[in-house]
Amino acid sequence: MSEPIIDLEHITVTFRDKKSTVHAVKDVSLQVERGDVYGIVGYSGAGKSTLVRTMNYLQLPTSGTAVVNGQTLGKLNTSQLRQARRKIGMIFQHFNLMNSRTIADNIDYPLRYSQLTRPQREKKVKDLLHLVGLDDKADAYPAQLSGGQKQRVGIARALANDPKILLCDEATSALDPKTTGEILDLLKQVNQDLGITIVLITHEMAAVKAICHHVAVMEEGEIVERGPLLDIFSKPQKQLTKDFINTAAQLDTALAEVRRQPAVINLAANAQLLHLSYVGASTDQPLIADLYQQFGITANILYGNVEFLQDTPVGNLIVILSGDISKFPAAFAQLRQEGVTVTVLDPKGDAVA
Amino acid sequence: MSFINQLMPNVSLIWPQVWQATLETLYMTVVSAIIAGFLGLIVGICLVVFDESGIVPHPATYSILDKLVNIFRSIPFVILLAVIYPVTKALVGTGIGNTAAIVPLVVGTIPFYARQVQNALVQVDRGIIEAAQAMGASNWDIILRVYLREGLPDLIRVSVLTLISLIGLTAMAGAVGAGGLGNLAISLGYQRFQNDVVWVAMIIILIMVFIVQAVGDWLTRLTTHN
Ligand SMILES: Nc1ncnc2c1ncn2[C@@H]1O[C@H](COP(=O)(O)OP(=O)(O)OP(=O)(O)O)[C@@H](O)[C@H]1O
Ligand SMILES: [Mg+2]
């Protein structure tokens, strides 16, 4: 593997004032490969924004080094840092467009730092407007645009100087679900067609699921879990990660619903409530049929959901299995061997195990 | 014309003097506005950028500027006139007259305008500043092309406010010997009981204020896009 395009080593950011000290980021090391789409999820206050802002030194780390595009940001002087930032695009939750400039002028603004001539700049702006699908909005002002359109302008502006990296801080958090989907599609296109590495900060696992190849989960200034998207989704280790995944798959709401059903409330002695999840290949196996044939166990599916992550199916089932309880352990072992994650659920509890 | 002469028996005898006083007031206002506007803008920008949350945080400089502005804003203008009389004399060569009045007018207006500029510019969304920094803009760029440009409608608004207050100050300076409409109103109107002179002086000043306000409103509309 080539060397990572973003390499954070032992980054710590501490905010101090007279009254208090906030450890926003604690000794985080993070590598992002060229061409990757890397998601960082966490709840509000986890330190995501602070961490991503060290990637273009909008936030100076208290300690640690950030090597981005092959440059150690901490070793650059002011003017070198400005140069470096032109190759690191950034988009924001609230778009941060200049209200006094037209859309075309907003996109043109970063080009003032390029070597391009006037006509070249005009062409570039036109191309970027086309890329984000806003050809007819060149002379509009930001106030005349919808949130989704503003974020498209944000993306066009961020891409103006042909960056290698695009940092997205909660870029879809102010948008409705449909618009969120459209912006995520555009980001995916930017990654695939232009080869731009994307770092996506969000508190919504759904956004990560849609476009990321890798994901890191942050809590209280630390990355508590990280890995390829499918690994994280199929074998989450930390409770926090599971919570995020379950919220995204709407498993929480489904389970609450399931627990209100008579079949669960009056769960028979020879039955158990289970959560089965599987990734990829196992979906080809007739799981349920096998259980009956081999162990005489019947399954009552209360909830089922299959979705595709990076073209790989990921399934979640909530089932009641009933039969000879003594055969359950062997049946679970068999399921696990086939790559199914088996979790016994408390029929009365309130969490997804 | 005879109707006007009847209505304003005194003014009709001194029209040239009224015209002269109007020009003097305009002269004091315009020159003071240019000098104080320029210097006040610079101080105002410094207050914004050196602030703790500004683009070049510099607590020591900020706190000195902040205190100076507060102190000078607290001095009543009539007292300021007297206090800086020696400075005026050293700079202009004389302590009375239109040009001499410009010194206290400028000194009195700078802190007022600086604070107004600061209030206008801090309205500019921090996120927009941050976006410019992320694009590799220099601090100069951010001041000239982001702060001043994004804050322009507000800057026009506070400039109008300052200009109007400056017109008021010139009248006050006039009262203590600087010439202009204030002087006319006091020396002829008030002290010699020529009421019509007072009224005419007031109306001319009101017209000036009205024009400033109207032009300001028009410019604000022209530059506002949200
Ligand atoms: N400039 C600052 N000064 C002091 N404390 C700060 C500053 N910026 C962030 N913090 C604190 O650092 C912690 C992490 O903040 P950060 O904005 O990185 O979180 P986040 O994960 O991005 O949250 P959100 O999802 O709400 O954006 C918070 O406790 C926050 O209050
Ligand atoms: Mg944040």
UniProtKB/TrEMBL annotation, chain B:
Residues annotated as domain ABC transmembrane type-1: 22-216
Gene3D superfamilies, per the entry: MetI-like
GO cellular component entries: plasma membrane
Membrane-spanning residues: 26-50, 71-88, 94-114, 155-177, 197-219
Keyword annotations from UniProtKB, A to Z: Cell membrane, Membrane, Transmembrane, Transmembrane helix, Transport
Compartments reported by the entry: Cell membrane
Record's bilayer topology term: Multi-pass membrane protein
Domain of life: Bacteria
SUPFAM superfamilies, A to Z: MetI-like (SSF161098)
Pfam families according to UniProt: BPD_transp_1
GO BP annotations, alphabetical order: D-methionine transmembrane transport
Family indicated by similarity: Belongs to the binding-protein-dependent transport system permease family. CysTW subfamily.
Descriptive protein name: D-methionine transport system permease protein MetI
Organism: Schleiferilactobacillus perolens DSM 12744
Lineage of source species: Bacteria, Bacillati, Bacillota, Bacilli, Lactobacillales
